[in-house]
Amino acid sequence: MDVVHVTRAAETFTCNAYLAADGHSTLVDAGAYDGVVDELRRHVDDLDAVVLTHQHGDHVEQLDAVVDAFDPAVYAFADHPLRTHELADGDTVTVGSDDFEVVFTPGHAPDHVSLVSETALFSGDVVVHDDGAFDDGSFGRTDYPGQSRERLIGSVRELLTRMPDSVEHMYAGHGEVFHGDVRSVVERALERAERREPKYPGE
Questions:
Q1: Domains in the chain: how many in total?
Q2: What number of helices (H) and strands (E) belong to the chain?
């Protein structure tokens, strides 16, 4: 599976949006980068699908523009005016050339899902490799209304039970792409979340 980080050039706040251009061309999250459509057109003529990990603004702000440009199917757990396919825990979705299991992972957001294949993890914001809080194994913030540290901890534990040991590519909603022992990164994130300490100093 060939994955392109299409919001890398953004100079304003956005999530990481990833394009799998091979096979069933799929965008994981639309981001908030107003140049995302132009970036997508550098890589594909058509876009088959958009899969949303959750619907926080930095993940969906440009969804209207992407749909207007490409008319893709839109997969999401929670309702959205542009959703064409509802996601549920245990579903299978095709991203690029690979099939992924949908794992319901609330806590950072009530509608959060992660996508797991034999070799890759799209973790959204539930777990990231590095994000300014921790350099190697961090977790989504849970201090805003509607968020829950307890639910996030349960979600990361569930993710570990459903993620094969063979996963070696981690595409998170923030920070850098990680290639290597993804399970160890997720385990470190879980350990930090379980301390129930603020994610950022002073919070």
A1: 1
A2: 5, 14
Residue 101 lies in a domain: yes
| Spatial distance between the Cα atoms of 78 and 93, rounded to a whole number of angstroms | 16
Give me the CATH number covering residue 39: 3.60.15.10
Is the separation of the CB atoms in 186 and 159 below 8 Å?
yes
> The tokens 């999401």 sit on which residue?
76
Range of the structural domain that residue 131 is part of? 3-78+87-194
CB within 8 Å of 44: residues ≥ 6 apart: 19, 21, 25
Question: Each residue of 95-132: pLDDT tens digit?
Answer: 999 999 999 999 999 999 999 999 999 999 999 999 98
15, 59 Cβ separation under 8 angstroms: yes
In terms of Cα–Cα distance, which of 177, 123, 132 is closest to 8?
Answer: 177
